[in-house]
Specification:
Helix content is 17%, strand content 35%. It is α+β, with helices and mostly antiparallel strands. Strands 4, 5, 7, 8, 13, 17 and 18 form a seven-stranded mixed sheet that branches. InterPro entries: DUF7918.
């Protein structure tokens, strides 16, 4: 089995694919059976999502083709397309998303959840074996005429009940949307002769998680989360390793000679710098002492008043 890179099944000049919720469904596990004239794959289904069937013929031909669509074993649409050579419709894309349930109403295709039951009568329903499949058959035909007719009307189940033992692993089935006004139907039916055998396209659907669990779809790629470290969550700072004594001795031997060569030069330069600094300081002290005047303090003998002494204050 392999995955389809182009996003559609291709067989005998026709391409067919499924669109779910407006997006072409990825296909997994493609298989081609030449003996059965059939090609098949798996797609993911999602509850309550609408889907449609699209097809196209890759080359123009002088004949038409008849298309039939089966959902869970129920025939829901038949189309006969007349496409002659040099007619643009020969390579046009056709999309079918509804089934006509009355002369004036149609219902959309949707995925739904199956209802399980223990009613043994359901075990005898042959259509149970087709639940989980969307099947499209195409047959080249020669159009020989037309006759007046009304549009085909299809009976679809109102609900999907299956026996709990009928088919393991089933969760989804096809359901149909609410009735809505139908588009103008065909007023004639083409008469035809088949030109070759039918070719069949089968899309088996399951929930994506189930396809992954069974290795049909690739696993979900995990996205690494950003780590926001807090002071408590940060790993402790690694302490420097104790260095081996022999390593330290070897390193000291390597730099020993360099230090011995420079220690005497450094000591001489330091001694010379200190001597120069001392000379500058002595010079500054001597200049300060010579330029500073010496002050002499004149002292006088203390005098005291004697009784009867007259002091002139003028």
């Amino acid at each position: 089995m392999e995955d389809s890179a182009q996003g559609y099944l291709s067989h005998s000049g026709f391409d067919v694919w499924i669109v779910v919720d407006g997006v072409r469904a990825p296909m997994y596990g493609m298989e081609h059976n030449e003996a059965g004239n059939q090609t098949s794959c798996w797609i993911a289904s999602t509850t309550d999502k609408e889907f449609s069937v699209s097809l196209r013929r890759k080359e123009m031909e002088n004949n038409g083709y008849r298309v039939q669509i089966f959902l869970d074993g129920h025939l829901v649409a038949t189309k006969i397309n007349v496409a002659l050579k040099d007619d643009p419709r020969g390579v046009a894309t056709y999309t079918i998303s509804t089934t006509r349930t009355s002369a004036t109403e149609e219902r959309k295709f949707m995925f739904g959840t199956l209802e399980l039951s223990d009613d043994d009568v359901l075990l005898e329903d042959p259509l149970t074996q087709n639940i989980g499949e969307i099947k499209v058959t195409i047959q080249r035909v020669e159009i020989v005429g037309t006759v007046p007719s009304k549009s085909n009307i299809y009976a679809v189940p109102s609900s999907h009940k299956v026996h709990e033992r009928s088919k393991k692993g089933l969760e989804h089935g096809v359901k149909y949307g609410p009735a809505q006004a139908a588009t103008q139907g065909s007023t004639s039916t083409s008469l035809y002769h088949p030109l070759n055998e039918r070719i069949t396209f089968v899309f088996r659907y399951r929930p994506l998680d189930m396809l992954r669990a069974n290795n049909v779809a690739p696993p979900l790629r995990s996205v690494p989360e950003e780590r926001h470290e807090t002071p408590r969550s940060r790993p402790p700072t690694a302490r420097p390793k104790k260095r081996d004594i022999s390593t330290v001795k070897a390193e000291s031997d390597e730099i020993g000679e360099f230090e011995e060569e420079n220690i005497e030069d450094k000591a001489a330069k330091e001694h010379e710098s200190l001597a120069e600094l001392e000379r500058v300081r002595d010079k500054q002290r001597s200049m300060t002492e010579r330029g500073r005047p010496t002050k002499k303090i004149k002292t006088e003998r203390k005098r005291y008043f004697t009784p009867g002494e007259v002091i002139d204050l003028t």
